[in-house]
Amino acid sequence: MDDREVGKMWDANADAWTKLARMGYDVYRDHLNTPAFMKMLPDVSGMRGLDIGCGEGHNTRLMAKRGADMTGIDIARRFAHHAAAAETEEPLGISYAAASGGALPFRDECFDFAVAFMSLMDMACHEEAVSEAYRVLKPGGFLQFSIIHPCFWTPRWEWIRNEAGEKVAVACGDYFGERWGVIEEWIFGAAPQELRDKLPKFRVPRFFRILSSWMNILAEAGFRLEQMQEPYADEETAKRCPDVADTRIVPLFLHARYRK
Ligand SMILES: C[S@@+](CC[C@H](N)C(=O)[O-])C[C@H]1O[C@@H](n2cnc3c(N)ncnc32)[C@H](O)[C@@H]1O
């Protein structure tokens, strides 16, 4: 599977994804990943930043609100369209373009930082995307990203439940599969059933990589690890949003910041 096919699939996902995410049903993003990511993010005010795989632009807007001069790119034209429409409604000085992280349409060393929220593992071109991020960063600039945790969300994966049906552990296998372009079909589980029934399921191509591959790709591009975290819901968040309580069992996401 190549970028063109990946882009087509995400184009088809974009309308329903944007609608549900903007209604608050992307609960792992809103209640766990984005708050933890933003807490880890250094001060970006006055900096020029790039959001790689920006989707409908929710997190791009948050960074612009922190004072960064933001550009967002996404392989899916339809996501770039929704993100640009939000910019027209509430101008924050963000520019959006449809482009691949694997071939960034920017000159060398023109960004102070780059971010990629839950997008690198969805790219057919991980390695190119990492080296492209390195190329467009100024010396001393950083790349901060979040991905699905490669160790705890493997190609073969299921929840183990107790007698009461509660999640208690994860069984994962086929770790070394590094399967390419596996299509997962799902929709935000937090959305009410009647709404889910009306919308097409997302078709998400996944590109599995083992942890050491990720580390090596980043090191070979020239990046130096600065900080890593495996966010999980605290007790208060788990009570407020029970959908994300399962992140207290194993880390489902990995966040890292690397420096050029
Ligand atoms: C899980 S969504 C995350 C979207 C957004 N960052 C967020 O957190 O809401 C993954 C995104 O990666 C984008 N994507 C996949 N392959 C890409 C590529 N090669 N270049 C740029 N974006 C890509 C998809 O179109 C999709 O918007």
What would your notes on this structure say?
This protein is an alpha/beta fold and 260 residues long. The protein has a single domain, classed as Rossmann fold. Helices cover 34% and strands 28% of the residues. It is built from 8 helices and 11 strands. The strands form 3 sheets. Strands 3-2-1-4-5-11-10 form a 7-stranded mixed sheet. Strands 6-7 form a two-stranded antiparallel sheet. Helix 1 (3-22) packs parallel to helix 4 (77-89). It binds S-adenosylmethionine. S-adenosylmethionine binds next to helix 1, helix 3 and strand 2.
| CA-CA gap between termini | 30 Å
- What's the main sheet like? 7 strands, mixed
Small molecules (ligands, ions, cofactors) in the structure: S-adenosylmethionine
Given the C-alpha coordinates, what overall shape results? Answer: globular
Strands across the major sheet, in which order?
A: 3-2-1-4-5-11-10
Number of strands: 11
Helix content: 25-40%
CATH class, anyone?
Alpha Beta
* Order of secondary-structure elements: HHEHEHEEHEEEEHEHEHE
Name the CATH superfamily assignment. Vaccinia Virus protein VP39
* Structural class label: alpha/beta
Q: Which CATH architecture would you pick?
A: 3-Layer(aba) Sandwich
Q: Might you state the CATH topology name?
A: Rossmann fold
Keywords:
260 residues, alpha/beta, Rossmann fold, seven-stranded mixed sheet, two-stranded antiparallel ribbon, 34% helix, binds S-adenosylmethionine
Give the SSE map.
Layout: H1 3-22, H2 27-40, E1 48-52, H3 58-65, E2 69-74, H4 77-89, E3 95-98, E4 111-117, H5 126-136, E5 137-148, E6 156-161, E7 167-173, E8 180-186, H6 193-198, E9 202-207, H7 211-221, E10 224-229, H8 235-240, E11 253-259
The structure holds S-adenosylmethionine.
S-adenosylmethionine binds next to helix 1, helix 3 and strand 2.
